[in-house]
Write a structure and sequence with these properties.
Layout (H helix, E strand, L loop, with lengths): L2 H19 L9 H40 L2
């Protein structure tokens, strides 16, 4: 598992712990940590998706290049 996936899983687990600890709703003492977790998750996912898009775009360009080279 990549380091990004590990970090995503860790942050999601923290969100689950907050929800499990508060079946009647989020408590005031959880708000700061929960906000930090959500901002962190947003940052990691934004980076992760950008990296995946770049990798897929590169693969698509390589495929086009290969196709162009094999054309008569």
């Amino acid at each position: 598992m990549s380091s990004e996936h590990t970090e995503i899983e860790r942050l999601v687990d923290r969100i689950h712990r907050h929800l499990d600890d508060s079946p009647d709703g989020i408590r005031a003492d959880q708000i700061d940590d929960l906000r930090a977790v959500l901002y962190g998750l947003d940052a990691v996912l934004t980076l992760h998706f950008a990296q995946e898009d770049e990798a897929l775009f590169t693969m698509a360009l390589n495929r086009v290049d290969i196709s162009a080279m094999s054309s008569p």
